[in-house]
Amino acid sequence: MVRPVRFTATTVASIQLLCQAAPVLGAPEHASNLTIAFGNNASGNNFHASPSVTTVALAWSDPLSDTATGNAYNLQLSLVNNLASTNVHAYVTGLDSAGTLVFMQPSGGWVHPSNPTPGVPQAVTADIAILLGSEGSSTNIVLPGYVTSGRVYIADGTLDFFTIRGQSGPALIQPGSVNPIDTSTETNWGFVELTTSVADGVFADLTHVDFVGLPLGLTLENADGTTQSAPGMPRSGVADVCRGLRAQAKIDGQPWDRLCLNDADSNLLRVLSPPNYLGFNGDAAFGDYFTAYVAAAGLVDCTVHPASAELTCTGDNRGYAQPSAADILGCNSGPFTIFDSDNDIHKAVVPRLCAAFNRATYLHAGGDQQPTDNARAYYTANPSNWYSAVVHAIDIDHRGYAFAYDDVGPDGGRDQAGVVSSHDPTKLTIIVGGPR
User: Signal peptide span per the entry (predicted)?
Assistant: First the structure.
């Protein structure tokens, strides 16, 4: 945990950086001041990485002991099929207690893919597809052990998985959602993110950071009889999101409608996130979309170098250049790139800066404190990340990860990310296809 640090600025009168549960260090001196609070976000400050066209390697985490006791070890997964399909498959993958990539077999137990030849992707040929029952049925499985950086993929059909040699063994190449030559791209699929541990029990969330696809929802049952839920998208979610983005494209002339992806038969299949779209197409879409807003908001800075317009802050190990549209939508490039060598202050500031740009809250009343405690201010001004805005509008309870740092929020603020978590869980249910 970093200690509270106060900063002085030239163009911004003061910046206050507050760590978890720290008191505010004093009232702002001007309306243009900015307070950045390091609050307790949903995932404990373990923010999402921005997506790439093909996500290579799950994030490596500290190993956990499978020998420890706890309900998470024997966590039951209930997979409810609400699709009118008998070809729905689930795939459970992540890192085991040794930090090694594993897949769950239908019969139970982990299977460890072999380490491929360096630079050569290798298909996962083991039996890892868990067939769900017919519409309305529940398929119950039990996790073979603790899993970190996990995902439960669900597909109306089958998915192909590959590995590539990583620094500590095989790393995952997830199925394709954009690339037309990837065999999985034509399949309707989605995934839930899942981590279980001795200390924290279960953490799971819905995610639209890569795309909106097969509707998925979550319900978590706890030992004390309480439940949590994140219902996710309705059955018509993909069509509804695409309709909203087409309407927005007519309003501001930006290519929001081009995020809608059809299959080979011209049927609407999924809606890509802006960085996923940009990563594959490599064009200049949204090129100047945020330029005027960045200039109006000013650099969130302590000291500005006139020649480079780069901001630097005392206590932060390096400065921030003005972000481009691609930087803002992806949150992992330009000034929002985070390196292992960056200090705790830098790693905590980046998510909050990028989240505020995506939600367009800097120039709103109360925008001098980030993250703002007024979620009603999100996406109420141009430019905004309208993909994220529309996704939240269509999600049944308006919760679900829609950009890389969508779990950023103030202490006590409403969860935006579709998170369920418990220290004493008994069953996690994944609803496939939206509520019936």
Answer: 1-26
